[in-house]
Structure formats: structure tokens, C-alpha cells
Amino acid sequence: MTLLDTPTLLETLSRILRPEDLLQGDAVRARSAAWGWTGADGCQALAVARPRTTEQVAAVLRACHEQDQPVVTHGGVTGLVKGSVASTSELVLSLDRMTEIEEVDPLERAMTVQAGATLESVQQAARTAGFCYAVDLGARGQCTIGGNIATNAGGNNVIRWGMTRQQVLGLEAVLADGTVISDLSTMLKNNAGYDLKQLFIGTEGTLGVVTRAVLRMHTLPTSFNTALLALPDYASMHRVLRVAQQRLGADLAAFEVLWDDFYRLVTTPPAQGQPPLDQGFPLYVLVEAQGTSADRDGEIFRDAILHCMDEGLVADSVVAMSSNDRQRLWDLRDDVEQLARIAPFRTFDVSLPLRSTEEYVERVTRRIRSRWPEGHVVTFGHLGDGNIHFAIGVGEGGPKIVEAIEAAVYEPLADYGGSVSAEHGVGTEKQPYLHLTRDAAQIELMRTLKGALDPKNLLNPGRVLPPRLDRG
Amino acid sequence: MTLLDTPTLLETLSRILRPEDLLQGDAVRARSAAWGWTGADGCQALAVARPRTTEQVAAVLRACHEQDQPVVTHGGVTGLVKGSVASTSELVLSLDRMTEIEEVDPLERAMTVQAGATLESVQQAARTAGFCYAVDLGARGQCTIGGNIATNAGGNNVIRWGMTRQQVLGLEAVLADGTVISDLSTMLKNNAGYDLKQLFIGTEGTLGVVTRAVLRMHTLPTSFNTALLALPDYASMHRVLRVAQQRLGADLAAFEVLWDDFYRLVTTPPAQGQPPLDQGFPLYVLVEAQGTSADRDGEIFRDAILHCMDEGLVADSVVAMSSNDRQRLWDLRDDVEQLARIAPFRTFDVSLPLRSTEEYVERVTRRIRSRWPEGHVVTFGHLGDGNIHFAIGVGEGGPKIVEAIEAAVYEPLADYGGSVSAEHGVGTEKQPYLHLTRDAAQIELMRTLKGALDPKNLLNPGRVLPPRLDRG
Q1: For strand B131-132 and strand B110-114, is the pairing parallel, antiparallel, or unpaired?
Q2: 3-state class of A57 per DSSP?
Q3: How far apart are CA B343 and CA B121, in angstroms?
């Protein structure tokens, strides 16, 4: 090589990274491209870079910036909207070598972690120190904190603790040109200029690559009170939610709704779960309070449930009397594997105002059933947060069928000011429907941000923002 | 006027606004330019525009954009960092005609309000509906929700509810060119693309003008348990905080620290307050829990205090036994008017990690006293959030003296990763010190954002971001 030669990108990367940290060929193909459910094949990227430090991430991005190389960032690759599926012309930047819990600080109630740490390892480190990390979701063993931050992950306890955005005290991210933006502050309050970390939370890696974060730790609850309630109608559900909020106050930690169809699925063999309450009620609510006064919280919780029974809001109920009881109730909620019985199916994640839930769910169900009378619409969700999940199966079908199902779920949301993505993000999958939730001015402002921070459009290009119509 | 004439800005504005909504001359001078303490004279702006609708705000900004007219937005003009002081070449855009509480929605636990509504009116509307609005601060009667949002206001209950950022569900703002970005959603969860409202929260009106907001309402507490504790040292304070967090859990609503000097000031005549505990302890903590189980919360609270006493963490304590008792304790904390006794003085608002508080406060105090042996350093703060306020008086002095005091407070923060602004913002006053908290890359990224959203630099120009050094 003479001084006049420009080294290729891979040559440059091989000077930044150890040989085992730069994968090519079959080693790339052996890796997952996306979460199993989306059905994608192995990773197709031109290479996978696995930096071990923020400095290496910055050097990789600088090199890519110089050579106009698009980059797709990988955390745990558990996203549900195909954001991680890289093409053969894209480099995958994986954070899977940066998994360290760097510091756990009980006094400041904060932990500093690398972006590749799994959610479960973060939860465990907090627990070991006598605290809890507030976000929890099914993919905890694989999903990473960097991915949680990039997608503003939600999960089961949002009603109490908020989403991932609320857990981030400090953040370090690398911009498209390799600039490191590092604010690893542990402070709850910092109004010294713009709060730049907000740029990297929930923007799905399109504005920067999250490398490290300072996360809040909360007081570890010492009491868990859980019940499953059968409800006669939506109006009762709204009133039960109000009672739970008023009587359980800030301890209310979950208000998960299982529609009749979901409950039937997870309490009918071959599902392992026994029905703790009769099947056939329209709605079931799994309600949980997490408190810090173990000897008093149980009474407060049972009083609240009794009050709902007395008021005629609850048709039947079962209160967990042991941690095994509690686990059995949660196992019903979490037994999404039963959805395989309606395969092939697609899952959906939307949110809308509570008052419109009944009408909306009925509209979606009617629209699916009118076209596919044997179709399945299985409904469940974090309804305390206005968040509904559907699993919809109508038998085998090509892209046209998928499109028709998506339209049935997403289009009515526009009438209610709902969101086509409550917690899963946009990726590439939901782009065609983003306009139902965000108007042209909002999408244009997103583009302005993207253009300002990543003018060469190199970071997760084509994700989140749909292509401009006028460019075809 | 012929078709070739360009109307002046004021001519254009007079077509958009009613005559009484466009102030000029003495009517401008009669208005406040900034909060009394900052000592500024009346408003010097070239005119004051007082639109009544979002459409009028947009039309005014569009007109200003066409004519390169800088605009300074006014809410309640209670800021403490001189962001509202307009020059004779700047137009003031006041939101004081847009004060409506448009909707209070108990089911969604959300209220939609115009930006000019005062904090107090918002609190009152929430209470009337049986809820609470979570942010509270001394200026509640004058400060507006738009200003609270633009500055991400904090206050007394951040330890429980978070700052203003955490209260905003939906937001409407107008960009510099008049584009309206409207997302008046009531939903807790919405990951459909970038969360644009974050751009307008805490950016002090430099990226857009907030016109309306959807705010969260929380469960109205039914129990208030309050105590004042005298503490022997910082280590005890940290342990008391830990006990409070563990035993009061999510009900812990305030952990306000009064240093000896502050306590002495508010409990010595001419102050009205009697000392409920002896003067002379190094630190006093006002701790409060707000709960929803009135008949049980008192016992939990008193048990927690007793536990601290038993552990030797608390030298003396008084627990409020009535709402009058409670009010008397809060009156001590809120009696900042006693600071007039050390006038002239300057107030400061900083944050830093808890573990460094003792060393930092001692350094600041030593630095002031070494130069002004008779100087006063009065210290208090929301220490549960790491937030300290100082009032410092050294007698009369010119700009050089002010600069020396500021340096004494701000410079040591760099050693602890502290912030030169916990909750008051930057305005123009803290710009010289922003670099102590934000490095060059962060400040450059703030400039990138400002340039992208307001390329003509018309919205609150010169606020937040210090002038570039290389441009003099």
C-alpha cells in the first residue's frame, strides 16, 4: 500500500478492532438478524463490528463517516419492528462486547452500565445492592439496556415507574461523525442547557449510538399484592382502575387486562394454566401493588378489592395468598407462547385513550371477522397505560393479507388520536402507518433533526422515518 | 401604501392582533421585564404581542420570521436567570391572553391547558376534579405552565413526582417559522417516532413557543405526614434519606434540608417562626410523606422517624400532629423573605452528587468567608434531589464582586460533576459557567439543534447558549 491508496473500510476497521471483534462471511450469517417472530434469516450485513469501548465505537463511526458507510446498531436484536435487519451494504455495529455493569452507587441510587448489558443483568445488579431497576419485559434475558433506551422500552410496570426514558439519569452516545456526547451524571436535576440525552432515547438509533448510561435505582418493594378480577364490562374496568389508583396510590404497579379470548387461550389445554376464575367474562384484570410496608399493604390491597366487589364492579376475584399464587397469575399473563396455536399470526402494539378502547377493540375485531369469519383476534395489554396488544391470525396469507390486517388495526386509531406504536417503536415495519399518529409537520421536524445530527443518513438509515413520497 | 411597499412588522402585527393585544410605548414600559429580585427596570421591548390563539401565535411568528425580527417569549416573567429581559430591538410575545384550562379529563387523568395558565390555576383545576398536579413552587400564582415547561420547573415534590418534564403528556408548540407542532395526546405511551415534545421542554423557549399542553394528573393524597428533624452530620442525613426511601417508599414527597444558617435566620426575630427544635444543629430536614391510606400512613411515618431516632441518626425531632403544625413547618422552609436581612444578596441553584455535598458546601463557604469574613452564606435545598440553593450576601459590590461570588459557587462544581443549574435554567445569567457542566461537544450539539430549528436565531436569541468564543 502506498500513501496514495485509501484503505478500504474493512482495512480501517481491522486496525481499530481485534480480529475476533470484526466478523465477516459465515460468522456474520450465523448471527440473528431480528427477533425470531419476524421470520428473518441470518444476518446479511457486510460485516459485524464488535467494539469493546466507547473510543472504539467512536473510531468505527468516524471511519464509516469518512467512507459514507451506513451502519445498523445491534443490541439484543429482540425488537419487533425489523429495525435490526441489515442489508448486505450495511455494517452492523454490535454492542455485545460492552456488557459491563461499571458501578452501582447505593447513595446516589444510580448505576452506570455499558449499553450491551442485558436488562436482566441490570435488574440483578440493582437487586444485589438492595434496589430495583424499574423496567421489566419478557425479553429481559436477551434485550440490552442500549436497545431499551433506543426504543424507550415499556413493559409491565409503566403505570408505576414510567418507561425507560424515566429511568435514564445520564447517557453517553456517539454521533454519526464519531463525536462522543458524554453526560454520565447521576443527578435527578440538571437544567444546564438542553437535555441532550432525550435525543437518543426512543429514536431507535437513528441519531446516535448509545454506549453507556446512568440508570435510576428505586426502592426494592417488600410487599407484592396481586389479584385477578373478572369484570362485567368496560365501565366497571374504568371504575376499578380509579379505585386502584385512589386506594393503592403510588404502589399500584400493574393493571394488565386480559380479554376473554386471551384468557380462554391461556387457561385451556394444552396451556398449563388452570383457570383461577371461570372463563366467559368479557374482561379480566391482573392488578398488583408493590409496597414497602409488608405488614400493612396486604390489608389495604384486600380492602380495595372488597370495595370493588361491594360496588358491584367485579364479578369474581382471586387474591394471591402466596408468592406461588402470584407467580401462577403472572404465568397466565405471560404465557404468550399459547399464541402459537393461532399461528401464523401477527402481533400489534398500539395505544389510545381509555374512553375509546371498547369501541376501538370492537371495530378491529369486527373488521377482521367480517373478512375472515374464522380469524382469531386475541387481545391483551397494559391497559392502565392505554396500551393494547393484539395477536391476529387469519391463516396463511401473502403480503396483501398482511397489509389488510395492518390496515384493520391501524387505520381506526386515527379517529381516536391513538398511536400506531405504544412501546415497540417504528423500525421499518410501521413506517407506512406513522402518518396516522404524526402529521406532516411532525414528520418533517423529525427529518430536520435527523438531517441535523446525521446529515449523511448513515445511522440506521431508512428506519423510523418513511421515505418522502415525492421521491417515490 | 402601494403594492410595492412592504408593510412594517408592526403594521403586519396590527392586522393579526386586536389593538389591545399589541402594546407599544408606555404600555410596554409599564410591564415587568424580569422577576423583581434581578433588579431589572420595566420592559424595554419594541412592542408586546399578546395573541389569543395558537393560530395568532403562528401568524405573529411567521411575520417575524419574514422580517428577521427577534422574539422574546414571556410567561409569568418569574424566571431567575434573566431570560425574559428584552432589548429595544426585540419583540415580546406574551402568552398572558392564553390562560384557559381547556379540558379536565378524570378518566384519562389528563388536563389540556393553554400555556399562559398559571401554575396555581392548573393545580386548582386538578384539585377540583379530585386530583393533584404534581409540580409546586413558590411563584405558583404568577408563573405559567408554558414557562414551567420551557424551563422544566422543579420545586418541592420532585423526589416523588419528578420535574415538569415528567408531567407533560402532550404538547403544542410553534416553531420560529410559524409551523405548528401539535401533539395534544393524553397517552402515557407513544413510541411512534421521535418524541418531539422533549425538544421544547427545558430549552427555555429557544427552539419553539409552547402554546398548549396536556398534563398528567395524579391521585390526590389523603394523608400528609410531616416532621422536622435535627441531624448531627451529613452521614446521618444520608442514612435518614435511605430509611425514608425504604420505609415510606413511593409516598416520600419531600426531603428538604435547611442548614444551620438558614434555620437560624427563619427562627430568629424579626422572623415570625418559632424554633420548633433548638438552633445550633448542623442540619435540619423537613421530611414529608403523602399517601392514600389516611388511617395507616401516620403509623408508618412515625415508625420510620422512631427508627431513625433509635439508630442515633436524629438528634431531635418534631412530628406535625395537625395541618396547622404542618403549615408552620413548611412556613419555615418557605420564609425566604428573611433573606432580605442579608441584602444585597444573590441566590444560586446548583446540583451535585449527594456524596460530595458536604465537601462542596464547605469549600464554597470557606472561599466566600476567606475574602469577606463578614459575608453570609445561607444554604438550603431539595437535597433529596441533590439540589442546593445558596443565598450569598457580602455587602454592596460591583460586577467584579458579583463575578467573584459566582466563581466561588460555580467553579468547584466541575470537580464533582455538578450542575450550574439544577432547576432555574441558564438564561443569560449562567452562560459564562455553562462550560463547567457541559463540555464543548455538548454545547456544539446544542448549537446544532438551535441552528436546525431556528436557523435565523430569532427565538429568545442569546439565551442559554453562550456566544462562540471565536466570534468574540
Answers
A1: unpaired
A2: helix
A3: 32
CA nearest to B436, candidates B472, B459, B457, B408: B408
Residues B251, A247: C-beta atoms closer than 8 Å: no
Nearest to A444 by CA among A453, A455, A435, A436: A435
Q: Which grid coordinates belong to B459? A: 427565538
Nearest to A156 by CA among A255, A77, A230: A255
* Residue of B351, B385, B445 lying closest to A181 (CB–CB): B445
Nearest to B211 by CA among B74, B51, B54: B54
Cβ contact A192–B430 (<8 Å): yes
Mean pLDDT of B125-153: 97
First to last CA, chain B: 42
Q: Do B422 and A464 touch (CB under 8 A)?
A: no
Rounded CA gap, A367 and A56, in Å?
Answer: 51
Residues of chain A neighbouring B422 (CB-CB closer than 8 A): 187, 189-191
Residues of A in contact with B223 (CB under 8 A): none
Q: What are the grid coordinates assigned to B256, written together?
A: 428538604
Distance in angstroms (rounded) separating the CA atoms of residues B200 and B172: 9
Judge whether residue B95 has pLDDT over 90.
Answer: yes
Of A346 and B37, more confident: A346
Which cell numbers in the block locate residue B134?
A: 404534581
Question: What is the average per-residue pLDDT within A175-182?
Answer: 98
Question: Residue A45: which of A93, A3, A98 has the closest Cα?
Answer: A93
β B91-94/B47-49 pair status: parallel
Inter-chain residue contact A442 with B193, CB threshold 8 Å: yes
Contacts of B158 (CB under 8 A, 6+ apart): A188, A189, B382, B384, B385, B387, B423
Maximum distance among all Cα pairs of chain B, rounded to whole angstroms:
86
| Residue appearing with cell numbers 386471551 | A262
How far is the CA of B125 from the CAs of A243, A249, B155, B346, in angstroms?
21, 20, 19, 35
Nearest alpha-carbon partner for A273 in A318, A309, A220, A207: A318
β pairing state of B22-23 and A376-382:
unpaired
Q: Tell me what pLDDT residue B38 has.
A: 47
A277, HSE (Cβ side, Cα atoms, 13 Å):
24
ipTM rounded to 2 decimals: 0.96
Residues of B in contact with A418 (CB under 8 A): 187
A72 in Cβ contact with A86 (< 8 Å):
yes
What is the edge-to-edge ordering of all strands in the sheet holding B71-74? B22-23, B47-49, B91-94, B71-74
A-B contacts at Cβ under 8 angstroms: 268
Give the pLDDT confidence of B25-43 residue by residue, as tens digits: 999 999 988 876 445 579 9
- Under DSSP, the state recorded for B466 is P
List, as one string, the DSSP characters of B194-205: --GGGGTSSSTT
Neighbours of B321 (CB within 10 A): 10
Residue A397, classed as helix, strand or coil, is: coil
Amino acid code (one letter) for B142: Q
Least Cα distance to B103 among B37, B161, B170, B148 occurs for B170
Task: Please judge whether B158 and A452 are an interchain contact, meaning their C-beta atoms are less than 8 angstroms apart.
Answer: no
| Cell numbers representing residue A451 in the block | 438531517
Residue B58: enclosing H or E segment and its boundaries? helix B54-66
- Phi first, then psi: give them for residue B135, nearest 5 degrees: -90, 135
Residue A419 with chain B: CB contacts under 8 Å: 185, 187, 189-192
* Residue bearing cell 401493588: A289
Strand spans (E) along B188-299? 209-216, 218-219, 223-231, 252-259, 283-291
- Residues B300-325 have a mean pLDDT of 97
* Alpha-carbon span B401 to B394, nearest angstrom: 9
Q: How distant, in Å, are the alpha carbons of A424, B60, B65, B89 from that of B12?
A: 46, 8, 12, 17
| Contact between A422 and B108 using a beta-carbon 8 Å cutoff | no
